[in-house]
Amino acid sequence: MHVDYLIIGQGITGTFLSYYLIKAGKKVLVIDDGKNDAPSRVASGIINPVTGRRVVETWMIETLLDHAQPAYEDIGEVLGKRLINDVPIINFHTTEQMLSAWNDRLNEGSDYITCVNNTTELERFFDTGVGAHGVSPTFLIDLAGLLSGWRQYLADNNCLLKEYFDIQSLVKNRDGVTYKELSAEKIFFCNGTTSFQYDYFKKLPFAFSKGEALIIEVDGLPQTNIYKQALSIVPYGDNKFWVGSSFEWNFKDDLPSTAFREKATSVLDSWLKLPYKVIEHRSSVRPASMERRPFVGLHPLHSTVGILNGMGTKGCSLAPYFANQLVEHILNCSSITPEADINRFRKILSA
Ligand SMILES: Cc1cc2nc3c(=O)[nH]c(=O)nc-3n(C[C@H](O)[C@H](O)[C@H](O)COP(=O)(O)OP(=O)(O)OC[C@H]3O[C@@H](n4cnc5c(N)ncnc54)[C@H](O)[C@@H]3O)c2cc1C
Fold it and tell me: Which among 220, 308, 342 has a CA at the least distance from the CA of 30?
């Protein structure tokens, strides 16, 4: 079997890369083992335009949002599902210092921060601390719907191989690559943390971060907002909510930990006034980079081998934009944003 492009991984990045290539009329085959604890299957799916204690706008957010909205709507149309919803965040502040940092940003004219003047209604559900601010627009992606829907689409169109990709069976030749009985013009690695085990990319400055979340059931809490304090409480359908997350740079394993469960339930116990029940505890490792910028492009020495990875904490906003940019680069030779282009590591990758 010959395809134009072989894609390893069907998380958020492999989904969008295959989507744009198929849309451009290319024949692709995606190989994915469907790991249930891949970060794309553990993430809550938030696109939050502000970040950090200083409440700064996230990198390229305006451009990313402009692209993400129609991208999720378009792929949703193909799948017959609504995949993106505007779900504002309510940020609760526990100290005067936090409240004043947010007020400062509001007064400086942030496009995304809003006032929450009246917290009376929220006091039925939460200890509202010293006050709150809103963040809007904020988007919530139905990742389960996206990943399972696109997986089915790929399978129905003979574009999916549900198996573990073994790099030992990959052979590079003059015209492209072969993998077992398959041949392709190029191969793209979209397989998260696994990509960095391969000789091609192991010199890239990755910095994995472990994240955990609880899935809880709460009756009576409106699914209209994301609620944020030390953790985020994110609508998860029916009466369920996703509660997370942690960011650990040093970790022994990728398994759910007692420490996180204890910390999360302690935050909930002091913040959420409604009774809740923990029904699941999940964890995964984010494919992050030291510079917090993605890795996009073709290997400087091996033009048949490419990567779309390093999405870190922001796969939902970065993946659609950079998948499209990579496809435009391959098909129309357009340029890749320099901060994301793996050519910035040309020297390291060529050594
Ligand atoms: C707790 C948590 C919360 C998060 N919340 C958010 C959020 O709200 N918003 C946001 O934007 N981001 C969030 N993220 C980050 C986001 O999940 C990642 O940026 C994103 O999922 C990375 O997607 P990916 O497709 O690059 O990699 P992955 O999700 O790792 O996908 C890789 C795919 O490749 C497959 N694979 C790997 N190796 C092989 C192999 N050898 N053979 C076959 N298949 C293979 C895996 O099974 C998987 O399906 C969160 C992450 C965590 C852990």
Answer: 308
